[in-house]
User: What shape does this take?
Amino acid sequence: MSPPSMMVVTSPPEVHKVVLPPSKTTVQKLRHRLAEIFFPDAPFDKFRNQSFSNRFLLGLQFLFPIFVWAPNYNLKLLQSDVVSGLTIASLAIPQGISYAKLANLPPIIGLYSSFVPPLIYSVLGSSRHLAVGPVSIASLVMGTMLNEKVSYIDQPTLYLQLVFTATFLAGVFQAGLGLLRLGFVIDFLSKATLVGFMAGAAIIVSLQQLKGLLGIVHFTNKMQIIPVLTSVFQRRDEWTWQTIVMGAGFLIFLLTARKVSMANKKLFWVSAAAPLTSVILSTLIVFFFRSKLHMISIIGHLPKGLNPPSSNMLHFHGSYLGLAMKTGLITGILSLTEGIAVGRTFASLRNYQVDGNQEMMAIGFMNMAGSCSSCYVTTGSFSRSAVNYNAGAQTTVSNIMMSTTVLITLLFLMPLFHYTPNVILGAIIITAVIGLIDYEAAFRLWKVDKLDFLTCLCSFFGVLFISVPLGLAIAVGVSVLKILLHVTRPNTAALGNIPGTHIYQNLHRYREAQKVPSFLIVSIEAPIYFANTTYVHERMLRWIREEEEWITKHNGSILKCVILDMTAVTAIDTSGIDTLCEIRRLLEKRSLQLVLANPAGNVMEKMHHSGVLESFGLNGLYLSVSEAVDDISTGWKCQP
Amino acid sequence: MSPPSMMVVTSPPEVHKVVLPPSKTTVQKLRHRLAEIFFPDAPFDKFRNQSFSNRFLLGLQFLFPIFVWAPNYNLKLLQSDVVSGLTIASLAIPQGISYAKLANLPPIIGLYSSFVPPLIYSVLGSSRHLAVGPVSIASLVMGTMLNEKVSYIDQPTLYLQLVFTATFLAGVFQAGLGLLRLGFVIDFLSKATLVGFMAGAAIIVSLQQLKGLLGIVHFTNKMQIIPVLTSVFQRRDEWTWQTIVMGAGFLIFLLTARKVSMANKKLFWVSAAAPLTSVILSTLIVFFFRSKLHMISIIGHLPKGLNPPSSNMLHFHGSYLGLAMKTGLITGILSLTEGIAVGRTFASLRNYQVDGNQEMMAIGFMNMAGSCSSCYVTTGSFSRSAVNYNAGAQTTVSNIMMSTTVLITLLFLMPLFHYTPNVILGAIIITAVIGLIDYEAAFRLWKVDKLDFLTCLCSFFGVLFISVPLGLAIAVGVSVLKILLHVTRPNTAALGNIPGTHIYQNLHRYREAQKVPSFLIVSIEAPIYFANTTYVHERMLRWIREEEEWITKHNGSILKCVILDMTAVTAIDTSGIDTLCEIRRLLEKRSLQLVLANPAGNVMEKMHHSGVLESFGLNGLYLSVSEAVDDISTGWKCQP
Assistant: This one.
């Protein structure tokens, strides 16, 4: 097949008219715009031209992704799911207990949270590899944000009420974002922000574990690095060597297991089994030497039985509602970001789609239901999902399997954890969060984009020294500022022709590009908005000034025409239109012609509506720079 | 001259390499970027290659623009300046007194403020037509913001201290913005924001003048529309018909004079002379009928003499410092915006440049000096500058002339204002602010850009119903959101070839554009940033899905290659690069080739630094869509 463009190179140059986009009413435009904002993936396309029963089935599959794969479920898939489910259960139980401690909650809440939410997710969720349950970041943030206002030691009931209320509100917020299809809100936590945030949080979490690892009893409630470190060293009298030895031993064991698994993906089960092994081993040690190791603090009594209902503990009034809302919002966003990022990662490895908005609803409903059954905020965990994936999980049945295992634990095995030492939980947490510190990503940010690296630093130090919400807010602010900066100070470049082509390129970048005599061709590489009109105005005048200086110096032919390459001017507003007119007026006074090349559809439309388009007229608009140059210089030759 | 592109249309198609921009060190890049941010107009270029004495002269001219025109000043210019100076003085004296009342200040402060600041501006300012003095908006905002916390009736001294402190801080802020070359900050008050804000403020100001016009004694301190209207109607017992008749009469006179001047620009002196005429007439009426018109409130005693020093009234401590800072910031920004907009308007009419940053310094220093000599915040007034321009002002000598007239008034004529009725001040204010309501601009916003209109409405209703700072903040928020929305949801379009050219255009917009078989050409019209990576990813997959559906339906030739037109992708960040890689990986799995056409310099650079560029290789990058199509389809023909 010969493309059309090749056949016609020999035809005489022809000028094509720049046309307006097909005219639409305001309502049509609004509809199109809203569809692009809220339904970029056109989820309802597949419902078109379908029978009613098909539509019903599609709708059911849309709401409950379980119906997509359930009809084809078979024994072979079940086998894989059982194996992976048991594997992640062995990880989920010790991690659940540990993370609950991180959120200043009784360990049993961590197990409750590993039972109900995974069941709900398995029906609603669209990721097949996500392992659902409590996660370190959300636990830490919830724990510190609430504990700063309400002490979990002095007011345990109020604290618990706030945890469940915040979890419910996080769920409402998450489901709301999904329902309103505002999923793009979480996109504003850029990768750079997250890399910095995760690293900062991991360092704080690890340092806080020194409490358990050193055996300190009195510890700060704060989460900034300075009070935490102060606490560690001020309480040297509370350090106990037995705890330290046991903690260090198991920490080394766990970190070694992690290294082994990282070096060889097939040995993923080493790090997956290590936490439960450590729990069992350490519990046995403490149990058998309990007379000698009484100074090692242990979990103690844990109630047997299923999740008790907790809907009576949700309080949406009183002076702490603001705190619960704020905590819910922050943990909601953070857990959503983690859950969706993890879901997308594994989906892309297996080539299926995870619908962000649907995931938000699934995670949201799972948290709302969880908050009524004694669970705190949960999401998809990166570490457990990786194990799940490596263990061969095929569907969310692995989550059901894990839930069942947790159920059995809750019903029968709770007394076994009585002598589990708290120090082992600290070691498990450190091993889990250490992977969140991603030096390589940070280094890559530095190499590729200095401003991204700055964002990363802001969130890192913000979290370490100020607080999680403020650290995140600063990082998001820097990210947004970066976008605004790009718009406020857009690139402009003078273009030249590449001999032998119709291509006009940056003179500064392409050595072979040549200035076209009597023309100044400038491209503006951003929308022309109120925020940059002054800049564009001044910069254009400077381009012209510099060109004229160049001509005087090099004895070039006099400047007659300025061509603005509008290809990258993807939008314009009223201030921008005024600026274009102003530049045109100024150039006319100097007998210079201003011509626009390739204005985008909506730019044309706005210029048309404001009546400016007509003033440019037929001779002021061209479809490409090359047509503009050809046509105008031909005109000059005809009328010398 | 024949442009190079015309001579070579017949040469065989050739493929040009996409090159990286000339490599620069991080420091060089940073320098270039900072220069573009802070010195887009390259103000130091003219200092290059100059002798020392020339440099000194240029520097002097740069700091004190008076040296630019002073050497060529002559008698003829002086004549024009004297006439225009006297004209604006006749306007400045009644307006000064009125605006001081608007700021809840003694009328004499308004005259003080029309004396010192114009003198300073005439030395430092670069606009030749700006008439400097108190203005309505800044007076209103300062008056209401301070009076909400400190009553000007109960604590007049504290109120005055706060006014001078706020003025000083406004000056510091303004000069600081100029010195740090952060002038673009005021660009964020877009035209749409200002149209709405001005209209809202004009309505509030006019309604507040009902106090004077109706003769009400007890009036609200607030500036929202509801308390103001409530005050007007609750105090019907205080209305006095003599005041109303006099107010209405002079208001009609002033408005008629304004209409006459607007209909015929040559009669500008009618509206220029009207306020002083009204003041003289009304004073005479009240003076001669003072026994019968005792219910009409009058200005009363005004002290004679020059501005007393007020530097001892500046207080930078205490509980009200925050209030003074906030007020200074808001009035500083507002007066800066007005002054610079006015300066630019008249500069563009007369073809000279007004340097924004320099103007900021001039206005800032003038306010700092003003605050030490009993002046409150001043800037360039639109109405008086227009009169100045029309009266033929040539340089800032007209400001000096005006100052001199005010000086004479202060020294000798103050007792004449004793019987001036307050009602006339209200009429003068209403006539001045009514011009700020710009229906036509609002209608144009609606026609051209619905989102701009929304911004305008937000600031209009925000100012009317909430408060000036919040109304402005909301409007700026909406404007910024608009920029972010454009980045978050960029346009994407499928391109087709326009037969007989190398041009590829939007298939939807250009009927003549034709799909190229086996190719899908998509252009993305925004930088690829963290905020839109998810969207770009989903939207690309949808384009491919839709293209494949179209092919199945129309029995087209199978899709083999996707070309991304990157012309409008003016920047990319690390998330964006990851997304491109991800899309490429997904397409490779489906045996589709992904090719980039015309990637911008900095995009290339970032892809190079992240090591992605190499993975695209030579066959994955083309200088234009047309070269990509030609080369790839030639390749297919060679290897079928």
